[in-house]
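Re: beginner question about structure tokens

> Can someone show what the tokenized structure looks like for a real chain? I only ever see the sequence side.

Sure, here's an example I had lying around. Input first:
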Amino acid sequence: MNAKLHTVTKYPEALIHPIFSYIQEAAERLELETFAIGGFVRDFFLERHEAKDIDIVCVGSGIDLALEVSKLLPHNPKVQVFKNYGTAMLRAYDLEIEFVGARKESYAQDSRNPSVSKGSLEDDQNRRDFTINALALQLNKNNFGALLDPFQGLQDLKKKIIRTPLNPDITYSDDPLRMLRAIRFATQLNFKIEDSSLQAITKNHTRIKIISKERIVDELHKILSAEKPSIGFTLLHQTKLLQLILPELTDLQGIDEKEGQTHKDNFWHTLEVVDNIAPHTQNVWLRWSALLHDIGKAPTKKFHKKNGWTFHGHEFVGAKMVFQLFKRLKMPLNDKMKYVQKLVLMSSRPIAIVDQAVTDSAVRRLVFDAGEDLEDLMTLCEADITTKNPKRFKKYHNNFKIVRQKIKEVEERDHVRNFQPPVSGEEIMRTFALKPSREIGIIKSAIKEAILDGEIPNEYEAARDFMIKKGEKLGLKKVSNQNE
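And the corresponding structure tokens:
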């Protein structure tokens, strides 16, 4: 065993999980220098003990090591082999363990997929993205738990610094996804990206164009899911990456002034909203709704001498922009996208019903239109309060208490949140001896509108009487002997 130890400090307590005894035995049988490396080691030193995956590197064949470990484990778990990458993966103890042989990498200008050749542990640590991810713990018996830390990654963990093992300009140019990973780690861990790294990211920001949209979105999800997402989006903006990835957001930046009248900077306001909503939800799509709720303001911004700056219809325009944004980033164009569209479209609705003069009908329509997403909509609207004036802040939150009380009263009385028509289409057809036709839709829609407008209660008998009257107005004749 000739691995060069850069420190004699050992941390066997990091390796108490039973999986490591199996890996150690397999490594001894195959006479392979073997190490735990990357996120598992990093998280041990950060005292984040919820590992779901472990990366194992050996000087030799990672595939052979994985197969040997599988033979030793109870039930001999299946090994997934990826020959093209020289890697293998197996699942045991609710963990995903990935095995790879130590390697060197070289990159072509137009791809983040490297050419790979066998190498030493030092070569493998050199290719790692950050010093904090290059930490390795030896698994062989004679140096079990020994820390190999050639780039002072442990010091960087203590100082809370994101730094690349080698020249950051080369590191980020070779694999531009690392730029997003640096920002993501800085956001998740609340670390600082070293100045030379930050400058290299800015210098190489256009290289992000060779990264697949799916990879980019995966990193955006992780940034959005952090405790304080604004850290990441500020860094994305500072390094010019955001302009390439989400120009709809950067278009919101800036304050215009005409005739002494200004408006707030909607970009920085948006980041505050996302931070405000973060403590209240782990739903990444609700956080996306907060991030995109004002994107319609850039294209709808107008100045009027009488009213000053306006953004009329920005919710409607923003909802349409959500579709284009999701499509461009290859995000799901399914119920997730429709959910974000809906919340963007309705983001200004709740505050409109604060006025005491607002009718129950308006409240019913809000409840009906929001449906099961009403609570999420209210959470978004409350997060949208970013005023620094304590009196205004208190006033706006009190207004939402009024809204919530109105909603509660209407909900208890009218039950329209998950509205189902009291009279079905089948009953309309039986009552008037109709075949499928547009009249059925007209009657059903009229019943719904009558309930929402408060003309009739949300009850079967009232709805049936209304149905008969509406049918007669349409020239339909009721068939006799319907179960009355």
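Each token stands for a local structural state, so reading them left to right follows the chain. DSSP finds 23 helices and 15 strands in the chain.
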